Amino acid sequence: MQAIARIFRNLRNSVAFSKSNFIGEDHLGNKYYERVADEKSAKKGNRYVKSYDGQSKADSELEIPNEWNAWLRNSRDHPPTIKEIERNYMLMMRTRQRAMEADTKEDLEKQSSGTDSAISTNLNSSKLSQKVPHPDFEDMEMTSGANRNFDYRDKEKPIDRTVS
């Protein structure tokens, strides 16, 4: 009997609709909602967006402002204000404008100096094609098991690494 009651209770809780509150709307027409947590049905709250008509879900995910995206992902507690979104949009546009100006300035400098767009290096191709022998060090073996010509008398005493 308890199993049947539990099944019906779970079914009722899964079908029961929890209340969603309208939070705000962005300049694109997306509407943002928050579903409040319900302790009786053990449903936790969540935040979601309903895209405006004529926009597919894939497109709407690409066009959600950063401030609203942070709110949807619970990175911020309060929804963004219109002034905040406008201020951040103006900062973004100013940054884009400055980047375009810097690019055009760089292009003009390249054209006036007469250099091509290839990266210049201080290496000559003739140096790259030359084969240079490997350096010979006194303390390295040239063949396996050969004696080394290294004199420890004029150097510090080597570290004793034996385990006692």
Q: How many beta strands in the DSSP annotation?
A: 3
The average pLDDT score comes to 76
Please write the string of helix (H) and strand (E) elements: HEEEHHHH
Q: What is the helix tally? A: 5
- The low-pLDDT segments are none
Strand order of the largest sheet: 1-2-3
* N-to-C span: 74 Å
* β-sheet strand percentage: 5-15%
Helix content: 25-40%
Radius of gyration: 35 Å
Major sheet: 3 strands, antiparallel
Secondary-structure-derived class: alpha+beta
Gross morphology is flat
Short description:
39% of the residues lie in helices and 10% in strands. It is of the alpha+beta class.
Describe this structure in words.
- By secondary structure, the protein is an alpha+beta fold.
- The chain has a domain at 9-106.
- Helices cover 39% and strands 10% of the residues.
- The chain has a three-stranded antiparallel β-sheet, covered by helices on one side.
- A hairpin with a 5-residue loop joins strand 1 (20-25) and strand 2.
- The protein is flat, with a radius of gyration of 35 Å.
- It starts with a helix and ends in a 35-residue tail after the last helix.
- 2% of the residues are buried.
List strands and helices in order, with pairings:
Elements: H1 2-15, E1 20-25, E2 31-35, E3 46-50, H2 57-62, H3 66-72, H4 82-113, H5 125-129
Antiparallel strand pairs: 1-2, 2-3
Question: Which characteristics define this entry?
Answer:
39% helix; single chain; 5 helices; 10% strand; three-stranded antiparallel β-sheet; 3 strands; alpha+beta
